[in-house]
Amino acid sequence: MIFQQIEKSNERDKVSFLPHTGSIMFSGIIAAVGRITHLSTREAGFRLHIDAGKLDLDDVALGDSIACNGVCLTVVATEGNHFMVDVSPETLSCTVGLDAPGEINMEKALRLTDRLGGHLVSGHVDGVGEVLRFDPVGDNRLLEIIAPKEIAKYIARKGSVTVNGTSLTTNEVSGQVFTINLIPHTLENTTLNLLKPGSKVNLEVDLIARYCERLLSAEREL
């Protein structure tokens, strides 16, 4: 495993060794809803100042990863119940929800001993989808999303997909369009209750689908 060295300053300078970001994983189970309070302009991109809300930052060190609306970002500073992350122009160009103040879904990176309640999520957004429907069905909501054509093939009926960092199970899939049933618990504990037709969302497809495609294509190439 590749390690990177991060310096952390408090009473004295300490050195901690953290896994390279390529090995960091999430589960898609949202731990808390936070809020981007403001953005500081940097030479390239922005620094986001985030109110962590109910997310416990006691064990968060500089260099740790937190998924914000499904995007794996590195903590560059902490102050009380706030933390800061830097977002590059590249990240801003292929995601939504990180370029202005507002509420975001948050999840700290998994430990090897953590329970996997959702599915394995990398925090690397594959594309941006658009909400077509957000209709009440009793206490639930029927969420219909159209995915970009290049990633729609990875989304399967009763499979897993990540929407704004939230691990969800698809009900139906037709071409680029898929539907999801959102239960009250999900609506109450994530920002998905703010969605409406026309909203843009970050999508990450199931890693298993990508590996299956690679295995099949490799067989043809060899």
Task: Please provide a written account of the structure.
The chain has two domains: 3-108, Elongation Factor Tu (Ef-tu), domain 3 (Beta Barrel); 127-221, Elongation Factor Tu (Ef-tu), domain 3 (Beta Barrel), CATH 2.40.30. The longest helix is centred in the last third of the chain and has 15 residues, at 207-221. 32% of the residues are buried. With 222 residues, the chain is mostly beta strands. The protein has helices spanning 89-93, 149-152, 184-189, 207-221, and strands at 3-9, 13-19, 32-41, 46-51, 65-68, 71-79, 82-87, 102-108, 127-137, 140-146, 160-163, 166-174, 177-182, 200-205. The strands form three sheets. It has a six-stranded antiparallel barrel.
Question: How do you describe this structure in short?
Answer:
By secondary structure, this protein is mainly β. The protein folds into 2 domains: 3-108, Elongation Factor Tu (Ef-tu), domain 3; 127-221, Elongation Factor Tu (Ef-tu), domain 3 (Beta Barrel), CATH 2.40.30.
